[in-house]
Amino acid sequence: MTGTWLAVLALVAMPLHAAAQGTVTGTVTEAGTQRPLGNAQVYIEGTSFGSLSNARGQFLILNVPAGEHVVRAELIGFAAAEATVTVQAGQTATANFELRQTALALDQIVVTGAGAATERRRLGNQIATVDLREMEAAPVTNMSEILTAREPGVMGLPSGGVAGEGTRIRIRGSASLSQSNEPVIYIDGVRADNSQGFGPGVGSPGGSPSRLDDLNPDAIERIEILKGAAAATLYGTQASNGVIQIFTKRGQAGTPRYDVSIEQGFTQYPLDRFDMHAGFVRAQGPSFTSGGALLDVGATGIQERWGISVNPWEVFEADMIGPQFGTGTMQTYTASVTGGSQAVTYFLSGRFATEDGPYDGEQYAGPGLTVSNDKSERMQFNANVEIFPLDNLRVRVSSNYTEMDHEVPDTNNNIYGVLSSIINSQPDLATSDNLFGSPAFATTRENWHRRTSQDVQRFGGAFTTIWQAASNISVDATVGVDFVNQRGVRFIPFGWDVDNYTSSNVAGNRTVGDRNHREVTLDLKANWGTTFGDDWTADFVFGGQGFLTRTLSQDGQGEEFPAPGLEVTEAGALQTVGEEFLEEASAGILGQAQIGYQNFAFFTVGARYDEHSAFGETAGGALYPKVSMSIVPSDLPGWDNVFSTFRIRGAYGTSGLQPGAFDQFTTFAALASELGPGVAPDNLGNPDLKPETSVEWEVGTELGVFDDRVSVEATYWNRTVNDVLVDRQFAPSGGFRSTQLDNIGEMKSWGVEVGANAVAVASPDFSANVFANASFLRERITDLGGAPPLKVGGSYPRYRQFTREDYHPGAFFGPMIDNSAETAVHLGDCNPLTQAELDAYVSTPRSPGDLQPYVLNCGTPESLEHYLGKPVPDWQGSFGTNLTFFGDVSLNTLFEYRFGNFQIHDLDGAFRRSHPLIGRNTRESAEVESILLNPASTTAERAAAADKWVRELAALSPYDGLNEIHDADWLRLREVSLTYRLPVSTAERFGASSLSLSAAARNLALWTKFPGTDPELNTASGDGEGGLTSNFNVGTVGWGVPLPRRFTVTIRAGF
Amino acid sequence: MMRTDDKRGRRESNSGATARNIRRVPAGLGALVGVLTLTACSGLLDVENPNSLLQEDLETPSSAGALANGALSTVAQAAGQAIMLHSAASDELVFTGSRDAWIQIQSGDLQDAANEFSDAAWPFVTEGRWMADEAVRLLEQFDAEGNLDEPDYLARAKLYSAIMRTMIADLWEDFVLSDRRDTQPPVGPANMLDFYDYAETQLTEALALTSTEALEAQLLAQRARTRHARAVREKITPAGNTPADPLVNDAGANADALAALALVEDSWRYRFTYSSSTVDNAWGGWVNERLELRPSDDYVDATDNNKEVESVALMDPIDNVVDPALEDIILEAIDARDWPPLTIVSARELLLILAEAELAANGDTGTFRGYINRIRDLDGLTDYTGQVDPEDLLRHHRMGGLYFTGRRLNDHYRWGTTSSLWNPNASASTRPGTLFPVAQIERTSNCYIVGTC
Fold this sequence. Notes:
The complex is a heterodimer. Chain A is mainly β. In chain A, strand 5 (about 65-75) and strand 6 form a beta hairpin. Chain A is globular. By secondary structure, chain B is mainly alpha-helical. Chain B has helices at about 30-35, 55-60, 65-90, 100-105, 115-145, 150-170, 195-210, 215-235, 250-260, 280-290, 325-335, 345-360, 365-380, 390-400, 410-415, 425-430, 440-445, 445-450; strands at about 55, 95, 270, 295, 300, 310, 340-345. In chain B, a hairpin with a 6-residue loop joins strand 5 and strand 6. The model of chain B is unreliable at about 1-40 (pLDDT under 50). The interface between A and B is large, with 115 and 125 residues.
């Protein structure tokens, strides 16, 4: 049906081009190896005529107007080449290209942030490009993985390893304390939703998907990344965190070309990252109680449950994590077709990806009940059509549609999580009806029945017209929409207390939250280019943008179902509803002028002015200026230097980030009372609110040597965020509990980004490319405007991250052992014991809880305010190789690393080592506790155990942070893939034009001293929409599953 | 560990919110309006956010009911938080879960301003105090302008304000009375008795406003309660000593108690009730839902897993049966899940106030026994005829009958008893009368405390 429609369009448009025409054909090969190069873009300069080379390197451009043309061939990783051909009516002209590998791409055309399509060489700021054609064999399944470890300064922050769990993206650290630090996302020029979370009312049980991952990776041609305000000025308000623009693939004229791929894989969690559970018993059995409380099941109970023979006080270990997990499976199927005429081109793509993760709880299902699963399923479709109704008019319609189903067990910092309950369980309490010895809240088996899911329907579309009004004037207009219909469900079934342990919602509870989100983008730009004499060029851009964002949120909850089997909220005896309506509008105008001199020096100046509905009544609009310069001395005539390419550049720019829609108003929320509707203080209000403004400058260089086979790019950047929106806690005694935004802060950051690429070997039988990048980041809150430090997680004392003046955002603070005393033990009065006093005290059995760590400023709130590190490393980056053997076998590796002044909070580990009721289940903590309690222990043994207890194990309240925060440098083998491209002749025997087989693995190995599960985890699997916890809880690992190892095999075929 | 999102506290945009359109018309964007033809309208940045009320909405007389009810809901929420702290600090609850900051409180270490739970309760309490006072202010303004159709709204707001002030003075050694951004310094421990006086004034004024008998009974009973509580605090202030004479005999409290009892049955209780459509009581979440704490062994026997109540264990000292009043309170609280009702004042307490006063004034008289036996009759217990020490019996009935109302801690202090859960080195043990401090969240945000004003 679609093909018919396209054919009709083509026929309608065809007469417009039915003048004298010919054909251009030829091949694209790699210089030196003579290897045919597929996917090279070959086009007639100054026209819309073009094509991609096939697996044999062949291309064909039809219906080229007769005359002389410059044909250009481009391929990422290769220097572009041009050839001049003369096309005669009805004839075929030939142009063959030999492309030379290069490590630099200054000729590359970029669009984002430049106002118009511009060569990279002309821009004074850095624009990173991720080209997905280079990543065909990479083990990536979504946008999060595509963006991770590709570019220096661009960091992926996965919260956990649940199937389908999203990743937050940070570019050059954090530009805001209170607002979202996610970069703004555009798809084909249309702003797109980049939120996370399950939906209103559903909460954040962990495993949250990211809307970024809704996008079909197989439909993406390239991604351009603006890393900061200096580059993103023309995007104005909301661009302070950088801009990611995604370009979907366009159709290529010619006969239909089909590409299909099938990927099969499996996933496993690296369970060796978990310490085995340990425990001990106090007596032979059958059980040991104190004050009516069961302390352990006795040696006979251990024998019965675990088949382990133990003696009283002997520490034993049991595998309790392993039985919760198996091997996950995944499949991905993709198909696409591209083709068309010179009047109409099309690209259609479909993708189905499903993953059933390693969680495996079927064996724990209660009668008539269903256990939760970690599974994620996405169907994605793209349809892009480009029409050329006139020689000077191009109309482009791109659309994408996604359906997603996602389900997770409760995980992360959640007392009803499957993993959290097993982590905090105790093998010495395990019985037949409490299989893993859960000491609180619910048994692990019960927790398996809590289910959280999300289904999403998402449509995005862009309608773009490009009118070449004159040879040097063009007008682009884009209207687009991104529409997300998102439904989250949290369901606790009736009778989930299958072990008769939990008392929470035993008659069931269901919450359904709908989020209906719409973003409309209007964009209009005019470009005018001209020359002044032989040496000077000038390009001007004028335009405007408008955005309308509307989010409707509703949620309903039903509790206490009358009977099992009911799964609708209305069946609940207790029902509540919630609703929120949020609308924001913004508009801006922009202008830019770029002056070029002799095509090697370029100077750009521009500005944007924004108004936004969230700005305070008295704040007015926001003006964002920019200026930049790029000089390429190596482009000067006669350049003869060891550096084959040499560029220096510098840029200065500003951009902003607006406050929330309601933050300017003093508001009161509805809070009903038993006697009727009432109100309560909500938002303190601030009519002077304005956007926080990032002012950034950067300088950099690109160097190429050995004919650009080796390149180095380096950038230094420096950012000051003024009028920082501080989520200020005013004195609660004033009546308002909530924090209130105030433009009172200042943050300063700077960094260095370095990237190096080398074409080390390029021969017909073997080629080797190596690459490495590194970024250094230093951030500091320089001024909080008198506001008190704010703590991540509010009064919840476990989270130890703060925003505090003169420290890195999210820095850790907590207690430190006071080593000034003879021992580090006190008994609750902050008087440290002498060794003799300690010996006397432990001459009889003692509980670890009796022995308190003697810390600096003991007994005062100041004891919690010692700096313990920062959650963001000084250095992060990646390196790897692309090796090719015999032209058709390639081996790619990608390592990622983070190191340097880098600490992570091992919160669940702290519980395991320290907590009296739901912890002390690691070997070392069980041993310490056993020694201290065992009547047969000697005083010396107990004294040594006491010392180990306070110095290494004791943690949690009122010493939250002590022995909890650890060095977290890590190196991970992120990706490895082996691909065999079958010879074209072989492929053709299967009816294909190209055929390849890949085997790949992701997250195969991790090297770190961090004692917790995985230093990449964090408990901030929230909505991604800003706020302290969402922004800065990246440094706290708590009850999440580690990133899984994933192994895949893929077959790709082109027809 | 850890948090759960099953329960949402405030439902911020529930039914009852008045729709409100917030509109702004931008300036200086005419050029853009011309360029962006699809948005060429005068209200380019018009947005609608009908989620909340604005300040001016509250300043209209039609908001009178919402103000009084808002005072009730915020004070009820605050009371739940405050009583939860008290129950953990006295001996009414024992920790059984993951959030071990409760251990610090139950151990009698009340002076840690940064304790998670005393820090978290503070904003609710300050909100309740402010909202009730703000409701009184606005309703008095309506009244003065002749726009208050229903004087009981004002009387109720004054009642809630008085309840909050009394509860604050019972549990905090110091407090701060600010107004929005107009921050004030702490009033100082020496001035905390003023909170009772303020409450008494509010209640007296409220009594003059209402002609509703039920409300009158609430006001009288609360004034009796406030006057009695003031006398208790006087006995334990300054902290550090146990009073020689722990018994209270306050003429005003006695008169109010008698007046209130004349209006109600002996089973009468004035309570805050909680529900899924209003506000939660903190007990419900911590005790019933998360099983972080349970009634302590001084009151109950626990289930085998030590998480819940198997049965009530506190025995009546005369009949040697489970204390019926306590059993009713605990079983009702447990059955109520997230929404246990909270007794603010009861006829039982008024009788105890009167019995205590008589015991203080005249000893174990027939009058004393009359008051005590009205309580025992209420519980179906044998009359007291001198079987046990009368003061012990009084303390027993306060311990059981006033469980979960916030009286136990100061009763410990004035009678010189301690919780079995207190660490001998903790402040509650070493410094009787120790109450909760100004919380860390206030200490770090109040410029007078920080020293930057």
